[in-house]
Specification:
By secondary structure, this protein is an alpha+beta fold. The protein has helices at about 1-15, 35-70, 70-110, 225-235, 245-255, 295-305, 320-330; strands spanning about 120-125, 130-135, 145, 150-155, 160-165, 170, 180, 190, 200-205, 215-220, 285, 290. The protein is elongated, with a radius of gyration of 26 Å.
């Protein structure tokens, strides 16, 4: 377990993008779905570390005593002492393993369901290599479709229905909940809750292909009034495009991007890539690979497969005039 924790730190340092909220506090919980798992992780780490230390100490003692015992006494003493240690070690190990198993089962039961009815239910669908988030139309608020950014109200449990559009992925927000797999054709469920406002980094934790490390998302926890305002704003169709260069940019988008992307209120109805209706309300783009700026938007459009090799997003060649017009149109998507 100790080695596993060390490996996780190493992988984290290698794969985290500077533009995304860091994963370096994954051993700190900020919600009731994560706290029991955090305590379990610390307990198993302590147990594993203790076992390693005890075994190393006993091995050193055995080596020392063996070297200094008279040669004619070594084998007779060795057989008796070895059996004693085998009996003792087997008994102690069995007790500790049974205790660890019981603690693990209790922990799993404690996080299996929220303590009260979820305030919100949303569907998260994993794609290679991004996340689609659907807020269904309900008494809790209007329907919303977004990508790679989940907004939730603070202090309220949120039920998440997990799906996969291609291969097995894993949904993991370390500070809010444990890992849960998204399996093609088999919807899964999880719940999260944030105890305080903030941005919590999420990550696919099941190797799913070349850009697995760049399949991040963020959970933005807001006070209820702020969350309700965000949801109402996200439910609106795209704003009207002012006449001029932005209109030309919209035409370019329709010709080259609308086959995959959707913008509500327009003829762009694609379903295979993120909905861009409120593109500029998001902090990141490309599933955490880039901060959301006009320059990075164009860089992603023109060089997607340089930024994320093997991405299904093709690079689109644009003239300077086309890039200016398209950028002007994207700037209207608030």
């Amino acid at each position: 377990m100790a080695a596993s924790v060390a490996l996780t730190f190493a992988l984290q340092a290698a794969t985290c993008d500077a533009s995304a909220a860091p994963l370096d506090y994954f051993l700190l919980a900020h919600g009731p779905a994560a706290e029991p798992s955090m305590h379990l992780g610390w307990a198993l780490t302590a147990l594993s570390t203790s076992v390693i230390a005890i075994v190393a100490l006993l091995l050193a003692i055995a080596i020392f005593r063996h070297r200094h015992a008279p040669s004619n006494e070594r084998f007779a003493q060795g057989e008796t002492v070895a059996l004693r240690w085998i009996y003792a070690g087997t008994g102690v190990s069995s007790v500790l393993l049974i205790a660890a198993l019981a603690y693990t089962l209790v922990t799993l039961d404690s996080v299996a369901a929220p303590p009260r009815a979820p305030a919100l239910t949303l569907t998260v669908t994993a794609y290679d290599w991004w996340w689609k988030i659907d807020y269904d139309n309900s008494a809790a608020g209007p329907a919303v479709v977004t990508a790679n950014e989940i907004h939730i109200p603070v202090g309220e449990p949120v039920k998440i229905i997990l799906k996969s559009a291609d291969v097995i992925h894993a949904f993991w927000v370390p500070q809010l909940a444990g890992k849960t797999q998204t399996i093609p054709g088999e919807p899964n469920e999880q719940w999260i809750q944030a105890d305080s406002p903030g941005i919590y980094r999420g990550q696919c934790s099941q190797f799913c292909g070349a850009q697995h490390a760049h399949m991040a998302f963020e959970v933005v926890a807001q006070d209820r009034p702020d969350f309700d305002a965000w949801r109402r704003q996200q439910a609106r169709a795209a704003a009207s495009v002012p006449a001029g260069i932005a209109t030309h940019g919209q035409q370019i988008f329709q010709e080259r991007c609308a086959g995959c992307h959707a913008i509500r209120g327009t003829d762009a109805l694609g379903v295979q890539a993120p909905d861009l209706t409120h593109l500029n309300s998001r902090r990141l783009i490309a599933a955490g690979a880039l901060t959301n700026t006009p320059a990075n938007q164009l860089d992603w459009i023109e060089h997607a497969r340089r930024i994320k090799p093997d991405s299904l997003m093709p690079g689109i060649a644009l003239t300077t005039a086309e890039a200016t017009a398209l950028s002007a149109y994207l700037a209207t998507l608030h």
